[in-house]
Each structure stands twice: as structure tokens, then as C-alpha cells.
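Bug #2210: C-alpha cell dump truncated for PucR family transcriptional regulator?
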Amino acid sequence: MKLKSYITVKDILQRKHFEMIEVIAGKEGLNRLVKWVHVVEVTNIRNLLNGNELILSTGVAWKEKKEYFISVIEQLIDSSAAGLCIEIGTYTSSIPPEIIDVANEHKFPIILFHREVPFVEITQDIHSLLINHQYQMIADLEKYSQTLSKKLLTIDHYNEILKYIQHYLQVQVIIVFKNKDIQFIPNVLDQERKKLLQLVEKNENNQHLTANSYSIASIPIHLLGSNYAQLIITSNERSLTEFDQLILDRTATALAQLILRDLYVEEKSRAEEVEWLSRWLEGDQTEDDIHEYLAYQSSTIKPKGANVCICRLEIFQNFSNIDLTYLKLFYKSIFEQQGFTLFAIERKNSIIFIILNERNVSSWKKRMKEAIQRLKNSNPSMIDQHPMPFIGIGKYVTDLVNINRSYETALETIRIQERLSNSSDFYFYDDLHIYRLISLINRHLDLNEIVLEYLEPIIDYDKKYNGKLMQTLKTYLSCNGSKQETAKRLFIVRQTLYHRIQKLEKLLGEDFMNPEKRIAIEVMILSYEFLQSSKKLKHAEHEAY
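Reproduced locally. Full output below:
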């Protein structure tokens, strides 16, 4: 059985030579720790004590001088002595009531020997006890450390270590993590929890503190150069000792090792999962591999198709790991309610979701639009301070081995979105239509040259005269050549419109409304806007750089 980690005045009173004693004051302080024993027969003792000494005296120094006696008691109390044992008869016959009142007020024990006792034998006995106790505590500490080392090989959660130190020391254990998560071992009621948290806050910059009858000791748990958590023990039944602090130190070291191991395993597992999902996105996983992976994740996943959604965050570095984790959970929650299962990985400045559809194929797009609308309407708090992320959704594929095609088209959707002023209207690759063609032409041909072939006269005219021919042309085409509707949309009179149309006919040719040429011009207008947005994007990136 483990030896107690401390010796109290009450323990000393059970020793030899303490049979005929009387505790006349400070009975509530009998649990004070005893670290040494001194025989004191002088009145000026303040500088002779270090704290927790049990004092033996005949009282000769203050014989018949009450003021000296009171001064000695006050010095003992101020020096945190454990108690005072007085031999009655030789020099002291009684204890003044004032002395008893002061001792009771400070819970300072005063013990009377009612017969002559050998102080030398008492000090030898208690010093031997204390020294043997120190040796035994060293052995207990080593045994505790060995037990912790064995536990590290078998336990799965740090709670087992917290329970072990709590049971070993019989104290309240508190661990405060960097993310403000707090655990109590054993758990306590709300009122007691608040009281303990207030004491912990006061003890924030101290390793050891005694306040409001509570003794508190704490130690930081350092991981990878940062303060990961604070381990705290507290007791309102006894003062914590150096042994308690040593046990706390050993426990903190074990916790750091266990948590670091768990973080490593978690990171390795996450890295392996990211690598697997990345290979899936690149088209390097077989059908059997995919089904095996999904079965391992959940036996209930029965996908009827899938696509990829890319969520690109403009200021990715402003999001903490906690924010990104919350964002992924938030997206998963929203999409799961619409019948989708999500797998997420982070890549550069984006979160990439592989979205598996588990409901009717014909409704996947409708349900996904509803999910996106919910995302917009209930933006997470960490996004409130930033622009809404670009969301690009690739082609829907019924064969999961073709998820790379959806990924490529989701990337293309994001690329196009970044070049469109009304990007929020286009989340799906399937809805980009003509912009897909424009993007394709831009990658393989000189799109600017083709645009100028059709629209250069209009562009030059607007620059030279600050005109509005491009706006007029675009509106006129969108109104299918209706002059009345065009004038109405442009808020101009018909005569002004007629004048502009004449100018358009002169610059583009009178046949610009012929079907084939009209289609080409409409495509070139969209291409011109696409290119203009690209220039603005490059300029913004350059400015940011």
C-alpha cells in the first residue's frame, strides 16, 4: 500500500511520548504538514524557520511575560509553522486566553505535554520518521513513473492517466486545453465548477497557491514548442506537498507523450486518407479500391453517382485549423440533409469535397441547389468577415472511378467563375454553356485577336468618345432587336437609340443582325467581358503580391 505523501501534526500526535497530551487550541489545524521539528527557547524566531516546522518548547523564554508569548505565537503563525508543543510544569503552568484565541483564529495547533518529556528522543524519532518517509516517497515516485510508462503502452485515451493521478493522490484533477476545453476528474456540480475555475484563474501565473482553504498546484503540458494544456490538482482537505508536485510533473510528461503519440497517429491517418482521396481525384483508384474504402467508412453508403465540389477561400491563410474543421463539418451537415455523403480534403487555398449521391439521380441537382442556398442563408461565423467562397461543382458521374472528370470540370468552373462578374449565378459546370467554349478557345487560340476582329471598332469608338455603343449593342441583342424594349432598358429616347444603331451598322456592317453574324457577335461580347475580368483578376493578384 502506498505511503501517505505527507505527515501532519495529527500523525505526529500518534507517536511515542505523545500519550499524555492535550490540544488546547487550533484543533482545526491538525492537518498542517510537518517537515521538521525544532526545539525553541528564544523569543526572536522569525528568521530561524522555513515553514511547516513543529516547535517543541518549555516556555522558558516567555516565562511570566504574556507579551513575549503573544509575539512568539504571532511569529510562528507568520512563518507558517506547523504547531507548538509546550511542556507544562517547569516554566509554564497555564496558557493565557488571548493566546488560545489567536491560535484558534488562525487554526494554529497548541499542544500541551502534561508531564516531562525527552525533547531529544522526540526530535530523533520524528526526524527518523521524516527521513524514512522521504526515502519511501522517492521509491513511490519511481514506482509511479514505472506504472505510468506501462500504462502508456496499453491505454487509448488520456482520461485513464487523469483518473490514475486522481486516485493516487486523492485530489481534484482539472485539465484546461488551449482551445478552452476543460475536464474535471471526478466531475463536479456547476457551482463547484465555477468556484474551482475562479481559483484556477487566480493560479494562472503560479505553480502553487493556497486560497480559500484550497491548495492548488499546476504545470503546463508543452507540445512541439507550445503550451498545449494546463494540468491542475487541487484539494480543500490538505495542503499539497513537493511530492504532489513531483507526481504532477511526472504525469504531465506522460500526458505529453500520449497526446503527442495520438496526434502523430491522427496526422498520419489523416495524411494517408488525404493521399488516398487525392489519388481518387486523379483517377488512380480502381473500382474495387473505391468500394472497399467506402465499405470501411460505412456499410450504409450506397452511392448512385457522384461529383466534386470545390470551395475556394479567397484569404485561406486567415482561417485557423479549427475554423477549417468547423467549415467542413458545416458543409457536411448541410449536404447530408439533402441525401449526400461528403469526403473532404484541403488543397492549396481550397477545400475539395467528393460528394456521393444516395438518393434519386434525377433530383441531385435540385437538392444540391437547395443545399447551396442554405449555405448562403446561414453563413458560418468565421466566414462573416470574408467574401462568400467560390463554389464550383463539376459534372455528375454515375461511375465512381470517373470522379477525376468531375474534379477537372469543377476546377474549370472555378477558373471561369473567377473571371466572371456575376460568378455567383454559376455554381455548376453544366450551367456554364457558352463560357465553357470561350474558356476552351482562350486556352488554345488567341481569343483577344478574335474578339478584336469583330468588336475593335466599337471598343475604339467608346474609348475615343466615351460612348456607350458596347452597352447598347449588348442590350439590343438581348432584346432580340426590339427597339422599344432596348430604349426602355437603356432609359433613352428612341431617337437616341436610332442614332446609336446607325453608328453600329456603320462600324459592324448593316448585316450585324443576320443570324450567323449575330451569334458570333454575341459570343464575342461574352468573350470580351471574360477577357476584361481576366485582366482585372491578374491586376488584383499583382497588387496583392
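Output looks complete on our side. Residues 242-281 form the longest helix (40 residues). Marking as cannot-reproduce; reopen if the truncation happens again.
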